[in-house]
């Protein structure tokens, strides 16, 4: 542990707060989805930093679950958007 984990995690948390405002203003569903993916990846980064800083294994387990859910959510959104373009009346 180098002592930089907590300040970096706090910086990422501030980044998430800024992204929250961007999600509220997002003009399209795709913009809001990108912000949701940012939440997933940044959340994973925060949890891994906290685990490395002394939190232990449970933070890594939660980070892996969040990463998996973010990936599945992104794929589901892309498939749904692609399906709507092929069938505009759907």
From TrEMBL:
<feature type="transmembrane region" description="Helical">
    <location>
        <begin position="59"/>
        <end position="78"/>
    </location>
</feature>
<keyword id="KW-1133">Transmembrane helix</keyword>
<dbReference type="GO" id="GO:0015385">
    <property type="term" value="F:sodium:proton antiporter activity"/>
</dbReference>
<protein>
    <submittedName>
        <fullName>Multicomponent Na+:H+ antiporter subunit F</fullName>
    </submittedName>
</protein>
<keyword id="KW-1003">Cell membrane</keyword>
<feature type="transmembrane region" description="Helical">
    <location>
        <begin position="33"/>
        <end position="53"/>
    </location>
</feature>
<keyword id="KW-0813">Transport</keyword>
<feature type="transmembrane region" description="Helical">
    <location>
        <begin position="6"/>
        <end position="24"/>
    </location>
</feature>
<dbReference type="GO" id="GO:0005886">
    <property type="term" value="C:plasma membrane"/>
</dbReference>
<dbReference type="InterPro" id="IPR007208">
    <property type="entry name" value="MrpF/PhaF-like"/>
</dbReference>
<comment type="similarity">
    <text>Belongs to the CPA3 antiporters (TC 2.A.63) subunit F family.</text>
</comment>
<keyword id="KW-0472">Membrane</keyword>
<dbReference type="Pfam" id="PF04066">
    <property type="entry name" value="MrpF_PhaF"/>
</dbReference>
<keyword id="KW-0812">Transmembrane</keyword>
């Amino acid at each position: 542990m180098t002592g930089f984990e907590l300040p970096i995690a706090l910086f990422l948390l501030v980044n998430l707060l800024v992204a929250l405002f961007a999600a509220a203003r997002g003009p399209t569903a795709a913009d809001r989805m990108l912000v949701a993916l940012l939440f997933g990846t940044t959340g994973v980064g925060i949890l891994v930093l906290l685990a490395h800083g002394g939190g232990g294994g449970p933070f890594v387990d939660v980070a892996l679950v969040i990463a998996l859910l973010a990936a599945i959510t992104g794929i589901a959104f892309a498939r749904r958007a692609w399906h709507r373009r092929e069938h505009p009346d759907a």
